[in-house]
Write a structure and sequence with these properties.
- This protein has 294 residues and is an alpha+beta fold.
- 30% of the residues lie in helices and 27% in strands.
- The chain has 8 helices and 15 strands.
- Strands 7, 8, 9, 10, 11, 12, 13, 14 and 15 form a 9-stranded mixed sheet that branches.
- Strand 10 and strand 11 form a beta hairpin.
- The longest helix is centred in the last third of the chain and has 18 residues.
- The chain is globular and about 55 Å long.
- The termini are far apart.
- The relative contact order is 0.14.
- The mean pLDDT is 96.
- The structure holds N-(5'-phosphopyridoxyl)-D-alanine.
- The site of N-(5'-phosphopyridoxyl)-D-alanine has 15 residues, from helix 6 and strand 13.
């Protein structure tokens, strides 16, 4: 079956899908994106993702490509036409096509591309054994809260991690505090059992997995502290893990050359992962987005 992609109002075979060379996304990275998981043919945390998309567009003063309701319909069509049960949907919206010039062009139409593909769940070995992260300087801009398609520092950081045999790179700000991974949010569990993740300011992307997990953690009565933590504190933590749409909740057992806790995936991280997975499964079965936690 050939893959179908939505491009500016049309559903096209993947190999025929194309955008204009003067699309501002192509020339200036003048656009935003979302990656949303699909489980059982349904989007996971759709409202969170669409709300974040609206926010990113508004911050950059890019017009919404269509109403939320229409967007939700098109997303569903892309999933259906590609017969995706478990996978991801990629959505990209840019300021549109115009002769190359830095200021906002007048009268462009927001370009919208939506593609989907099947994706297997996270590597079972990474899940069972935990993963390694390295730490690198955060060289990004001051608006990391916007899910911009300008990802050069992120891909350089991820490549550095891969070359060091690590899964992810945790970016560290000028004060020695961890901001986030290159495509994931960063968490630790302190010796006192507190769950710590950086507050959602301009230095991080406010992950939808992060938001759902905070909600779950609150419901089971965990002590949550949204604050920055240093690399030293992370290395001395009882547990560490990362979250994202594609990695869900993944245990970290090594930061640079330091083993975390006893060097095995932590218990709280595992419990939170299980709760997050059932939260997603619940939505796959047609349940509400709000996590149902006893
Ligand atoms: N990345 N931080 C950054 C910089 C990210 O790019 C992402 C998502 C996250 C986690 O957000 P969420 O939980 O909403 O996926 C945090 C996506 C998956 C990507 O670029 O592929």
């Amino acid at each position: 079956m050939s893959r179908i992609v939505y491009v500016n109002g049309r559903f096209l075979p993947h190999r025929e899908a194309a955008i204009h060379i003067e699309d501002r996304g192509y020339q200036f990275a003048d656009g935003v994106y979302e990656v949303t998981a699909v489980r059982g043919g349904r989007l996971v945390d759709e409202t969170l993702h669409l709300a974040r998309l609206d926010r990113s567009l508004a911050e950059l003063r890019i017009a919404a490509p269509m109403s939320r309701r229409a967007l939700s319909f098109v997303l569903g069509e892309v999933i259906r036409r590609n017969r995706i049960r478990d996978g991801i949907v990629y959505l990209q919206a840019t300021r549109g096509v115009a002769p190359r010039d830095h200021p906002f062009p007048a009268d462009t139409r927001t370009s919208l591309v939506i593609a989907a593909r099947r994706a297997r769940a996270v590597n079972p070995k990474a899940l069972a054994e935990g993963i390694k992260v390295i730490t690198i300087p955060d060289i990004r801009w001051a608006r990391c809260d916007i899910k911009s398609i300008a990802l050069l520092p992120n891909i350089l950081g991820k490549q550095q991690a891969r070359e060091a045999g690590a899964y992810e790179a945790w970016q560290v700000d000028g004060a020695g505090l961890v901001t986030e991974g290159t495509s994931t949010n960063a968490w630790i569990v302190t010796e006192a059992g507190e769950l710590v993740t950086r507050q959602a300011d301009n230095a991080i992307l406010n992950g939808c997995t992060r938001l759902a997990l905070l909600d779950i953690a609150r419901r089971i009565g965990l002590t949550i502290v949204e604050r920055p933590f240093s690399v030293g504190e992370a290395k001395a933590a009882r547990e560490a893990f990362l979250t994202s749409t594609t990695s869900l909740v993944l245990p970290i057992v090594r930061i640079d050359d330091t083993a975390i806790g006893d060097g095995a995936p932590g218990l709280l991280g595992r419990r939170l992962r299980e709760l997050y997975v059932s939260h997603a499964r619940n939505q796959a079965a047609g349940g509400p987005e709000l996590p149902e936690v006893a």
